[in-house]
Amino acid sequence: MLYGSGLLLLSAVAGYWVLERADSHKGQLKKAGQVVGWVVIVTSLLGVACRVYAVATGQACPAAYCPFQKSAPSAPAAK
Question: What is the domain extent for residue 29?
Fold first, then answer.
């Protein structure tokens, strides 16, 4: 799988786990757990969708640091 996308998918699984754990609680803790779980899932899946779109359209990461690259790009040489 694309570098970085696997981590995003694992975080979606973690969000699902938070949702499952929230079901066993009551009141505000249950509500807060559900909100956090859904936010993690949606954010993770949007990240995967953006990464797949960028690869499918041939767009490279911007010149700044890209979280999907293994290292940050080197700075231009000073004159």
Answer: 9-54
Hey, which bits of 6-61 come out as E strands?
none
pTM: 0.69
Q: How many CA atoms lie within 13 A of 3 on its CB side?
A: 7
In a domain, residue 78? The reply is no
Q: Over the Cα atoms of the chain, what is R_g?
A: 17
Domain membership of residue 65 (yes or no) is no
Q: Is 56 helix (H, G, I), strand (E, B) or coil?
A: helix
In-domain check, residue 50 = yes
- The string of pLDDT tens digits covering residues 34-62 is 999 999 999 999 988 888 887 777 776 55
Calculate the alpha carbon distances from 63 to 6, 58, 66, 69, 73 in Å.
23, 15, 8, 11, 7
